[in-house]
TrEMBL record, chain A:
InterPro entries: CPA3_antiporter_subunitC, NUOK/Mnh_C1-like. Coiled coil: none annotated. The keyword Transmembrane helix applies. This is Na+/H+ antiporter subunit C. Belongs to the CPA3 antiporters (TC 2.A.63) subunit C family. The lineage of its organism: Bacteria, Pseudomonadati, Pseudomonadota, Alphaproteobacteria, Acetobacterales. PANTHER family: ANTIPORTER SUBUNIT MNHC2-RELATED.
TrEMBL record, chain B:
It is a multi-pass membrane protein. InterPro entries: CPA3_antiporter_subunitB, MnhB, MrpA_C/MbhD. Its main location: membrane. This is DUF4040 domain-containing protein. It is found in: Cell membrane. The lineage of its organism: Bacteria, Pseudomonadati, Pseudomonadota, Alphaproteobacteria, Acetobacterales. Residues 186-302 form the Na+/H+ antiporter MnhB subunit-related protein domain. Keywords: Cell membrane, Membrane, Transmembrane, Transmembrane helix. Belongs to the CPA3 antiporters (TC 2.A.63) subunit B family. The chain crosses the membrane at residues 31-47, 54-74, 86-110, 122-142, 148-165, 186-206, 218-236, 248-273, 285-303. It holds the Pfam family MbhD. It comes from Neoroseomonas terrae. Residues 10-74 form the MrpA C-terminal/MbhD domain.
TrEMBL record, chain C:
InterPro entries: CPA3_Na-H_Antiporter_A, NADH_UbQ_OxRdtase, ND/Mrp_TM. It comes from Neoroseomonas terrae. Residues 136-434 form the NADH:quinone oxidoreductase/Mrp antiporter transmembrane domain. The chain crosses the membrane at residues 6-25, 37-61, 81-104, 116-134, 140-159, 171-191, 211-236, 248-268, 280-299, 306-331, 351-370, 382-402, 422-444, 465-488. It is a multi-pass membrane protein. Keywords: Membrane, Transmembrane, Transmembrane helix. It is found in: Endomembrane system; Membrane. This is NADH-quinone oxidoreductase subunit J. It holds the Pfam family Proton_antipo_M.
């Protein structure tokens, strides 16, 4: 049951984040939307993992491991975007 | 069940608030709440490793990074780069995104039963690695290549962020110089927390082989322990030209790749660990990799070197 | 899946550039430059070795990482297409590295400069990422490869540090990140539906669940944004035109091909059992629109580098003409083989021709101090080799025989007629004429006697030489007998035994 609830939540978060990325024009808000969207996708992985529980494991460890990698990569992408935004904001002064 | 529904509703609410917020500062504050609530959802999904990572990186480090960006951008953070789309277009985009979410929700509900899973295969193969934590086994052995490449991505991100340095500052210390905060909670935390945090990080790293935890979580905490005194103006980061700093960033990835190549030479496959050597090799890689990732994450938050930083 | 002999070759072709990229950081600009140059022959040898192993063995070369076989483990699988792309990447990266020494070199005793510090590891990162993108066989590993490509390409766009290029880089980054997350969402759905991410295993499973169909749609949109197929091409012209010439060459020749090869793996690997002819017609329709609109934009463009960038938008279009041809005929038919070869040869010959063109445009822009096409008069006298390079590369893009571009377009045209879809043949012919138009504009302007012509001072011969060499390769590909393109047929997933 938890898996279903959070699966639907993940789908909703993807929609919310996508909307923000396409509609917001400020760079910071677009970047936040990207991260909201990413959180939703990771949650879909988490639901897939939870559904695959078995063999004494509470969840399929493979998608869980993929999320760990994904979070770090998404964070690195965020830092790159922030560095660019700061450069552009600073030059605009 | 009720608790899950409430949690899901709260997450959806803060996400919507963050995306629609009028001011960037509000949006970031809501985003940090989003990250923390998400980590609770991960606990409910029986994924404690992910919950720790989400809280440490998704909420913690990202929060510091984005709050700093909003502060430095000032009014620029709210200023639109171009005109927002008109009402009609916004409505159309909204309908499209709702459609994507609905299709995705339906696809998730229709996922096959019983769910396909690799859990039995992982459980069967895990003893050969000598590890007790299945996620660590996947990260360091079965899908070790992904982890290795991700470590390379982090190094590349440091190079990329530094490449955005403004003219005149090359070689100097990263990030803006932080004002010294003499008193108050930040200063207190910056003085008190690092020793505790370092012990906690070491513990998380050490137990990660068999219990929830591991290098990403430990690295994120270590990075935070460096960032706190930096934010309080108590610690000056080293110049990016410093050889030891650059060595620290790459030591973990280099060790990982060298072990991988040694596996190819000795065992005939990249990242193949000789029998009986898997656990000690994995632990050694993890210790060095944690240090490297911690330094890299902190450098990524600090940003490119600045001309006005002390030379 | 079994490991095969020589699997270490593609593995090293990926891992050595990764190691070099990481080590380049502490080495600093000067030693990183030397390390890159030392890597070039090694990388080329590994690519040639892989191609020979694939061709002689007549089967893909497979390396199982850590001896774990999929679905639990990860595999590298170099098929013919991958081998051809490894070779292309090794040659283009080599040429660009030699070309770039004048711009990003560091003399003994000179302090490290920002651009020089960044350029060499970024070049190595592009190299390792493109190699990884063509040999990795796991959809999540391929996600990491896409991110490596983006993180390396974005800083290359704005290496000069100007505000214009930073804006172009930000726009590119936003497109690329959106593309990545859509792709990643598809990965989650496919794992949820199939329990594996290995392309070969997925192809055997022939999945048809709604989750997989939705995943393929999302991933296709994401990869199209990264490949810059019209209408998702808006980021490309400012990004590719604003970058330094050496970086533009790599971006246009290689970076966009990574996501394209991945699209092929999805459509004709994972979905080999479920052809989607209707959707494939739409992709080719977008490709046709890209050919026409991109070429028209190039015809009207006043700046040389932007003209070359719009030409990339158009040439990407050709890559998508193979989709409906492959989707509408049996995978093991003669027509499918021609369409596949046509697309692969287009990807390879465009890589050489476009890299040559951007390098030539860079030499001209550096000598004139601007790149306004109408004011390039006198270029023919002052820099005949450079103009010849541009012309030869243009011939290949047009598809004039004998050239690599001709071979590609001839194969696509024949496949279109063989599949009974003659309308795509018209697009190929029309696109060739328009390409001729914009190449002619540049040559005509360059051959006029001009007032602002620079002194005929010698250009560093290495720079002219490598650019000319790339252009010659793009032409010579057309002299190969058609049988030579059999390499790219090896290990096509649709025709697994």
């Amino acid at each position: 049951m938890s898996a279903t609830i959070f699966g639907l939540l993940g789908a909703a978060l993807v929609g919310i984040g996508l909307f923000g990325m396409l509609v917001r024009v400020s760079g910071v808000l677009r970047l936040l939307s990207f991260n909201v969207l990413g959180g939703g996708i990771f949650l879909v992985f988490g639901v897939v993992a939870r559904r695959g529980a078995g063999a004494g494991l509470a969840g399929d460890p493979v998608p869980q491991a993929l999320v760990l990698t994904g979070i770090v990569v998404a964070f690195a992408a965020t830092t790159l975007a922030v560095a660019l935004l700061l450069r552009l904001g600073r030059d605009g002064e | 069940m009720i608790a899950d529904l409430l949690l899901a509703a709260a997450i959806a609410a803060v996400a919507t608030g963050s995306v629609l917020a009028r001011r960037a500062f509000t949006a970031v504050a809501l985003f940090i709440a989003y990250g923390l609530l998400l980590s609770l959802a991960w606990v409910r999904l029986a994924a404690p490793d992910v919950a720790m990572t989400e809280a440490a990186i998704g909420a913690g480090l990202s929060g510091v990074l984005l709050l700093g960006a909003v502060r430095r951008l000032g009014p620029h953070a709210d200023a639109p780069a171009n005109l927002p789309p008109g009402l009609l277009l916004t409505a159309l985009i909204g309908i499209g995104c709702a459609g994507v979410a609905a299709a995705l929700g339906a696809a998730i509900l229709w996922l096959p039963e019983p769910a396909p899973t690799l859990a039995p295969q992982v459980a069967a193969a895990l003893p050969t690695t000598g590890l007790g934590n299945a996620v660590t086994g996947v990260l360091m052995s079965f899908r070790g290549l992904d982890t290795l490449l991700e470590a390379a991505v982090v190094v590349l991100a440091v190079i990329a962020v530094w490449s955005l340095a403004p003219d005149g500052g090359w070689g100097s210390a990263p990030g803006a110089r932080q004002p010294v905060v003499g008193r108050g909670p930040l200063s207190l935390l910056a003085r008190m927390l690092p020793p505790i945090g370092i012990v906690v990080a070491a513990h998380i790293l050490w137990v990660g082989a068999d219990a929830p935890g591991g290098k990403f979580q430990a690295a994120a905490i270590l990075a935070a322990m460096w960032l706190l005194p930096w934010l309080a103006g108590l610690a000056t980061p080293p110049r990016i030209a410093a050889p030891w700093l650059r060595m620290a960033v790459v030591a973990g990835p280099v060790l990982f790749i060298v072990v991988g190549l040694a596996g190819a030479a000795v065992e005939g496959a990249f990242l193949a660990y000789p029998p009986g050597w898997a656990k000690p090799l994995i632990k050694s890689i993890e210790v060095v990799l944690t240090a490297s990732i911690a330094v890299a994450l902190a450098l990524l938050v600090m940003g490119p070197p600045e001309p006005d930083a002390p030379r | 899946m079994q490991a095969t002999g020589w699997g270490a070759l593609p593995m090293l072709a990926v891992m050595l550039p990764v190691l070099a990229m990481v080590v380049a950081l502490p080495l600093g600009a000067r030693r990183a430059e030397r390390l890159t140059l030392a890597m070039l022959p090694a990388g080329l040898a590994l690519a040639i070795g892989t191609a020979v192993a694939v061709q002689v063995g007549g089967a893909p070369v497979v390396h199982l990482l850590g001896h774990w076989s999929p679905p639990l483990g990860l595999a590298f699988r170099a098929d013919g297409l991958a081998a051809a792309m490894l070779l292309t990447a090794a040659v283009v990266i080599g040429a660009v590295a030699i070309f770039a020494r004048a711009d990003f070199g560091t003399k003994a005793g000179q302090p490290e400069r920002r651009e020089a510090f960044a350029f060499w590891p970024l070049l190595l990162a592009v190299w390792s990422a493109i190699n990884l993108a063509v040999v990795a066989n796991d959809l999540f590993t391929l996600y990491v490869a896409l991110e490596l490509l983006t993180f390396a390409a974005m800083p290359l766009v704005c290496l000069d540090g100007s505000r214009t290029t930073m804006e172009a880089a930000l726009r590119y980054l936003m497109f690329a990140l959106l593309g990545s997350v859509l792709y990643l969402l598809g990965v989650a759905l496919i794992y949820g539906a199939c329990g594996t991410l290995d392309i070969t295993l997925l192809a055997r499973m022939a999945p048809d669940q709604p989750a997989v169909i939705l995943a393929i749609v999302l991933m296709t949109v994401g990869l199209l944004a990264k490949t810059a197929l019209l209408p998702l091409h808006l980021w490309l012209p400012p990004a590719h035109a604003g970058a330094p010439a050496a970086a533009s060459a790599v971006l246009s020749a290689l970076v966009i091909k990574g996501s394209f090869v991945l699209l092929l793996r999805l459509w004709f690997g994972v979905m080999a059992g479920q052809p989607m002819p209707g959707a494939a017609q739409i992709l080719a329709g977008l490709g046709a629109a890209a050919i026409l609109l991109g070429s028209v934009a190039a015809l009207r463009e006043a700046r040389l580098k932007l003209l070359v960038a719009y030409s990339t938008v158009a040439q990407i279009g050709y890559l998508f003409l193979m989709f409906p041809l492959l989707a509408s005929v049996a995978a093991d038919s003669q027509v499918a083989a021609m369409a596949w070869s046509g697309g692969a040869v287009q990807a390879v010959s465009h890589a050489f021709a476009k890299a040559a063109m951007f390098l030539a445009a860079g030499i001209m822009a550096a000598r004139f101090g601007h790149d306004r096409i109408v004011e390039l008069g006198g270029a023919g006298r002052a820099m005949p080799v450079t103009l010849l390079t541009f012309g030869l590369a243009g011939l290949s893009l047009m598809g004039v025989p004998p050239s690599g571009g001709f071979a590609a377009k001839w194969l696509l045209l024949s496949a279109a007629i063989g599949a009974g879809q003659w309308w795509w043949a018209l697009v190929v012919l029309g696109g060739g004429l328009l390409t001729g138009g914009y190449v002619y504009r540049v040559l005509a302007s360059g051959l006029r006697a001009g007032e602002g012509a620079p002194d005929p001072a010698p250009i560093a011969w290495q720079r002219d030489g490598v650019a000319l060499g790339l252009a010659v390769i793009s032409v010579v590909l057309g002299f190969l007998p058609l049988a030579a393109f059999g390499l790219v047929q090896v290990g096509r997933l649709g025709v697994l035994p």
